[in-house]
Specification:
Helix content: over 70%
Radius of gyration: 16 Å
Distance between the termini: 24 Å
Number of helices: 5
Structural class: mainly alpha
Length: 120
């Protein structure tokens, strides 16, 4: 396993959620969003894709660690938006779904190119 262990990434994720919850003492607002593939959803997918590769290469993490890194940042940002709903609208489960789609797509792409590299 490379650099960052999965357990340490998950511990950091739990700490992040706890700190965000303590800092923003107001009500978490969950908005009613849609799954239309518009600019916002494209951004969530693309940024999560990029964060996966950032976690894997720059942070020297494993594939699972890179997925947790990307998901943790996306979840943290959605929680932040949920508590700062006056400015950002609120927490969107649909945005988080596009984060997950981006992470899975990046991981599958990564595995594909590793397979190509090993095969040829």
């Amino acid at each position: 396993m490379r650099g960052t262990t999965t357990a340490s990434v998950f511990k950091l994720l739990l700490i992040q959620i706890g700190v965000i919850t303590m800092l923003f003492g107001q009500q978490l607002k969950i908005i009613d969003d849609n799954m239309n593939f518009e600019l916002d959803k494209k951004a969530h997918l693309g940024v999560s894709w990029g964060l996966y590769y950032t976690g894997y290469t720059i942070c020297d993490s494993s594939m699972v660690g890179a997925m947790a890194f990307s998901f943790g940042i996306g979840l943290g940002y959605e929680i932040y938006q949920g508590y700062r709903h006056e400015v950002h609208g609120g927490f969107s489960k649909e945005d988080l779904a596009y984060n997950v789609i981006g992470i899975i797509a990046a991981n599958l792409n990564h595995r594909f190119w590793l397979y190509i590299k090993e095969t040829f």
